[in-house]
Amino acid sequence: MRLIVQIPQDDILIKGLVNNDRYCIETIYKENFKIIKSFIINNKGDLNEAKDVFQEALILLYEKAKNGNLNLTSKLSTYLFAICKNIWLKRLNRNNTYTTEIQEDVTSDLSEQDNIQRSEEEQETNLKFETMDWAMESLGEPCRSLLQAFYIHKKDMREISETFGYTNTDNAKTQKYKCLMRLKKLFFDKIKSR
After folding, report:
1. Same domain, 6 and 96
2. Mind listing the pLDDT tens digit for each residue in 1-38?
3. Number of domains, the chain
4. What GO biological process, any one, is recorded here (predicted)?
5. CATH number reported for the structural domain that contains residue 113 in this entry
6. Are 63 and 54 in contact (CB under 8 A)?
7. How far apart (Å, rounded) are the C-alpha atoms in residues 38 and 109?
8. How many helices, marked H, and strands, marked E, lie in the chain?
9. For residue 138, is it left (φ>0), alpha (ψ between -120 and 50) or beta?
10. I want to staple 45 with a disulfide (CB 3.0 to 4.6 A). Which of 49, 62, 183, 185 is the partner?
11. Where are the beta strands (DSSP E) in the chain?
12. Entry pTM
């Protein structure tokens, strides 16, 4: 049995940006600036312009997130790259240095970076699946069956209370909660120990 447990890294970074969390801002910078810098330098820019464009993109991202207007449909790195690319192309156009010969080496680097990151994320996801399988097996009965009935077979609390012999739905809910807390503890203890 597999349950998906995923920590949305991009969401954490965006919330950190909005809350001026230094670690989150540094992480966004470390994970994204190099590719932006390469793109701008390869397209008639320099390091200072790359810094300016990246800063402007972060401000736009911050304002959208702060106002609740940010709806990410891609990875944060892809979104930031698109913003920076648009800002840079507008600057080139404004300065009459726009060219249709945009160096796409950086785009392929971005794809490569995405592939590596995707591979790492898949490994991490597989590890979480294996850990969840282990935690479910270690959980034992009746908790395992109760959680499967609720989360996998989508049974309501009335059906669960009848099947497992609880006197009412409140008792079934309480037991489900206790089982879920035990499962989370097993899962996160195992993740921390790796």
Report:
1. yes
2. 444 433 468 888 888 888 988 898 899 999 999 999 99
3. 2
4. DNA-templated transcription initiation
5. 1.10.1740
6. no
7. 9
8. 8, 0
9. alpha
10. 49
11. none
12. 0.49
